[in-house]
Amino acid sequence: MANLPQHILLIFIPMILANSIHMVFVKWDLLRSFKIPISVRLFGQNKTWRGFIILPILSAFFAWMGSVLSGPFLGNHLNVILFGLGMGIVYLLAELPNSYVKRKLHIPNGGHSEKYKVLQIIIDRADSLLAIFLYYYVVTNCPLLDCFILFISAMVISFVTSVILYSLKIKRSI
């Protein structure tokens, strides 16, 4: 995996920083005017337009910063910005089916079923990450095996990041 630094700058750092900062927006209730649920009935209270605005913009910004610091990836900085926007949107869209299923099973917002808690925690992590790495595979020339290795790494990083944010009382659940 010769392009590991590039993968880190294009995926890991933008998504970790974008998601962490988004959690700060949620915790401190910033940009309240955009805290409008997309559909309470379908996805619950927590899937809001604020997330769909903030996360793609932050993902694009941090991907661009990585590109500025290390040289343009994907041809030029504009492509990296568009890639970052797409990554944030793909991440959010991939969360919607899981939220829909949880609402149909009457699982509370931000909660897990007691019966299948571990499985649900894994699915909560895997849905968006799987979509991001499929997106990454399609948009870049990253080999499929490398994308799989990056996906497994991202699962571990995502869990550790959630534990840290939960410990700092920024996030309400792991």
List the helices and strands and how they pair.
Elements: H1 4-27, H2 40-43, H3 49-70, H4 77-104, H5 117-139, H6 144-167
Helix pairs in contact: 1-3, 1-4, 1-6, 3-4, 4-5, 5-6
Q: What would you call the structural class?
A: mainly alpha
Helix content: over 70%
Number of domains: 1
Measured distance between first and last alpha carbons = 30 Å
Largest sheet: none
Report the C-alpha radius of gyration, rounded.
Answer: 16 Å
Proportion of strand residues: under 5%
What is the overall number of helices? 6
The ordered H/E elements are: HHHHHH
**Any idea what the shape is?**
globular
Structure, explained:
Helices cover 72% and strands 0% of the residues. By secondary structure, the chain is mainly α. It is built from six helices and no strands. It has one domain (4-167). 29% of the residues are buried. Helix 3 runs antiparallel to helix 4 (77-104).
Based on the model shown, name its key terms.
single chain; 174 residues; mainly alpha; 6 helices
